[in-house]
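Hi team,

As requested, here is the filled-out complex form for the adenosine-5'-diphosphate run. I kept the field names the same as last time so the parser does not choke. Let me know if anything looks off before we queue the next batch.

— J.
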Amino acid sequence: MSESNLAARSDGLEGQVSGARVIAQALKTQDVNYMFGIVGIPVTEIALAAQEVGIRYIGMRNEQAACYAASAVGYLTGRPGVCLVVSGPGLVHSLGGMANANMNCWPLIVIGGSSERSQETMGAFQEFPQAVRSSIYGRPGACYVDIPADFVSLQVNVSSVKYVECCMPPPISMAETSAVRVAASVIRNAKQPLVIIGKGAAYAHAEESIRTLVEQCKLPFLPTPMGKGVIRDNHPNCVAAARSRALQFADVIVLLGARLNWILHFGLPPRYQPDVKFIQVDICAEELGNNVRPAVTLLGDVNAVTKQELASKKSLPMNYYTVFYHVQEQLPRDCFVVSEGANTMDIGRTVLQNYLPRHRLDAGTFGTMGVGLGFAIAAAIVAKDRNPGQRVICVEGDSAFGFSGMEVETICRYNLPIVLLVVNNNGIYQGFDKDSWKEMLKFGDATTVAPPMCLLPHSHYEHVMTAFGGKGYFVQTPEELQKSLRQSLADTTNPSLINIMIEPQGTRKAQDFHWLTRSNL
Ligand code: ADP
Ligand code: MG
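And here is what came back:
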């Protein structure tokens, strides 16, 4: 059929345009590109007009299948597919597809023809952009547009038709920042976390951000049936093969665009721990808190919220595991490890590896604080004679360092290239952060109100080293720690002290979960 014939098909007189064509053009303007359906009176013209404006039309054999197809196109492309049906039975058949699209949270527009109406109601043309918006904004879903038959065949002046501009892509909403921080901290303190990836995450194109989160934080993940493939199934962190166990033993579950419905056993015991903490990320406020009471709810787009979590993770203070993980990564295998402190020594022992006998010195049988720098000096002197170049790493708690800190002068006097690490939590076992310390002093003199465990927060122990000419570093992030360790270990002539600030209350004991040690989350 020639262009002019085509035009004649839906456009009658010169300068006039049919209702069908207006509908088709309005859809095309909204970037709707696929139409499924079964034609009949009065919608046949709409299908023809759709083809004319460049929308693909796929004629199906039952409206239900057409509606399923249109909704799947919506999920796959992010723009709603159209299901075109006739009034009465056609519409009834499409109900299954609409319900399914709604349950799946997939965008869909169903257009049904209906019997003629008086021309006064023609403003309904303007409803199209709203239909597109409501199908893709917020939680995606089905919407239905009723087109009276006389609309389809009506001829109007081209000049009188105004197409509403293509609606903007769905606005991206982010979660409340305080909730994001709480979530980051809950994840970090989890013993057995689990990320569940649902089809909401797939629809949100959140694959990059979720993979980064899973890999950076070494989190195990489980996809739902249609969450499969957001991260490849053969990824080492995928625990799909142990699905039941993963669900049953998780103490923290991060739900990314998945609902706690029957597919996930409603999030309830016995399939889950009774006290499992859910962190629920969903774009639909009504979904939050459904079936369980989540520890944290994050209302927003799963991709945006995952990025927020990644950014928030960076601002969290380090904990022991993070510190020791990065230290262990860089320790020379043949080095001496001297260690003293409480948590610093206990947790450090589980993470820092020794490969040689007589190369670890710590508080020993008597549990003595104050031995560290003396031991380190001895090791450095022996190493100098026996094995020049062999390094001595002295890992001190901030309290432990205080017992013999002045021996730094000795270290500098003899120019012993010891790497001193002070793992600083502002106290013995635990301390206060700067703000809490200040707040506390409002209630009285430090001698009466300060918990005996507290030391002065934010003490710059590295200055003890620089005072005598060695290198001093003050570090607060994993990146700063890695860099200062690299520099200290590369310097084979000068001693250095790295003052490592960690979470003041981060006194968690060692756990048998290697991933805990590997990141800042
Ligand atoms: P699954 O079957 O994979 O578990 P569900 O259909 O149960 O997935 O859950 C999908 C969830 O994803 C829905 O609650 C929906 O509101 C949500 N969702 C859809 N799009 C987004 C998005 N962009 N960001 C966050 N959540 C989304
Ligand atoms: Mg689900």
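Two things worth flagging: Residues 104-105, 139, 198-200, 203-204, 224, 226-227, 257-259, 261, 263, 282-284, 287, 301-302 surround adenosine-5'-diphosphate (ligand 1) (CB under 6 Å). The radius of gyration is 33 Å.

Thanks,
J.
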